[in-house]
Design brief:
Layout (H helix, E strand, L loop, with lengths): L4 H17 L4 E6 L7 H14 L3 H8 L16 H6 L11 E6 L1
Antiparallel strand pairs: 1-2
């Protein structure tokens, strides 16, 4: 299930590509990362906790209930090449990976 418009767009483009290339025996696999616990994400959780009158921990628990692993990713978990190449914008964390395999 997409967690945002970015992932939904990526999934739709990759689905269209998979449909187009299936006749050529090309398999298209897409990986869309979920939420990453960046400084911006923490501020959003703090705002949500303040608005609901709950703790930051409670807001984080609520935000992670739909995540199968029950937690958000951490920026330090990304490979060093992706951290050094990323832009300074929070949108830089909205990236994707597609693997193309010829069968």
């Amino acid at each position: 299930m997409p967690v945002g418009l970015n992932n939904a767009g990526i999934l739709n483009v990759m689905k269209a590509l998979a449909d187009e290339e299936a006749a050529n025996h090309i398999l298209v696999t897409t990986v869309c990362p979920g939420p990453i616990l960046t400084e911006r994400q923490t501020r959003l959780l703090q705002d949500a906790a303040r608005a609901k009158g709950t703790s930051l921990e409670a807001a984080q628990r609520e935000a992670t209930t739909a995540i199968p692993l029950g937690r958000m990713g951490r920026p330090t978990w990304w490979p060093s090449w992706s951290r050094s190449a990323r832009a300074t914008s929070p949108a830089a964390w909205c990236w994707w990976t597609a693997v193309f395999t010829v069968r």
